[in-house]
Each structure stands twice: as structure tokens, then as C-alpha cells.
Amino acid sequence: MPTKSSRVTFHPVTVSEALAAGAEDLVTAHSVEVEPFQEIMGVGIDWASCLAEERRGGLKILGAWSQGELVGYAAFSLQKMTQRSNTLVAFNRGLYMSPELRGHGLELISQAEKFAADCGAKAVMQDTLEQHSTEPKRRASLGDVLVRKGYRPYARLFLKVL
After folding, report:
1. Contacts with 74 (C-beta within 8 Å, 6 or more apart), sequence order
2. Tens-level pLDDT at each residue, the chain (162 residues)
3. Domain-located, residue 162
4. Distance between CA 46 and CA 115 in Å, rounded?
5. What range defines the domain where residue 104 resides?
6. How many domains does the chain have?
7. What span, in angstroms and rounded, lies between the C-alpha atoms of 127 and 145?
């Protein structure tokens, strides 16, 4: 089992390779940790849709590995922003690092940015599912980290449960 001081490497994977390496467990842990509407959204992934998107060239996954185990991922959809002169943008679909290896989170983001650029993206669009609380912060939120890495707020998403 990887520990806080374990070395982490990064390389692209297909959906099938990610599933074979245990991505289902990581995605479930990710959803349980951050999804505020689990009773509606659930905690699973529609893997058939992911495979179809990957076949069309739209879904890209960068795996984070330690001691032979998949310990994190950055998944994004490549889409042209037709309202912006067909600029190819990598839209965040999931960004996760196992809790014991969160010290490698900045490296995951940096490696994912390089991977997106290698795939032809001109920009990366990250969204966050941040819990709002009156309790003091124990650590920086993903939004805080993204701002420090040079991201700028672009849009806000709102959800209404029907």
C-alpha cells in the first residue's frame, strides 16, 4: 500500500486500463468525498458512456500510479467551444488523488495540463464540488489551489434538484 512518501508517476490510460487497475473504487471514493447530492446523483459512473466518448476521441485520462497501484486520475473531455472560434478545451471530468498521497495533487494538476496540451487543448476548464461550511478550513480547497496555479474564475455552475 502506497504511503505519503511513496513516489508517484503519471501516464495516460484508456478507460479499460483504468477499470482493470481499480478505477471503480477510486471513483466511488471520490464521489463519496465530494458529491453533495449523492442521493440524486449517485456515486457511480456510466462506464459504457465513457467508453463511447473515448472511442470518439473525446475522453482522456491521465493515471497517477504508486507502487504499481492506480492512486489518482485526471479525466477530461476534449470539446470545441463553438462560440469561441472552435477552440479545443479540456473540460474537467474528474480530478482525484488518494488521501494518503494528496501531497502529489499539484503535480497531478501540472501533469494533466501538459497531457491536455499534448492532446491539442488550448485551455483547461476545471470545476469544483466544494462543500460550503461555517467550520474553519482545515486545508486549502481545490478552488484555492487552482487560483494559486494561475486559473481564473470563468463561470459558476448552479444546480437545482427537481
Report:
1. 61, 62, 64, 92, 94, 95, 108, 109, 111, 112, 115
2. 777 778 999 999 999 999 999 999 998 888 887 777 777 777 778 899 999 999 999 999 999 999 999 999 999 999 987 776 778 999 989 899 998 998 898 999 999 999 999 999 998 988 776 554 444 445 567 777 888 888 887 776 666 666
3. no
4. 24
5. 9-148
6. 1
7. 12
Cell 469544483 locates to: 128
Amino acid at 85: S
Residue with cell 487560483: 147
The model carries a pTM of 0.81
CA distance 77 to 61: 9
Q: Residue 123 belongs to a domain with what CATH number?
A: 3.40.630.30
70 domain residue, yes or no: yes
Q: Residue 122: inside a domain, yes or no? A: yes
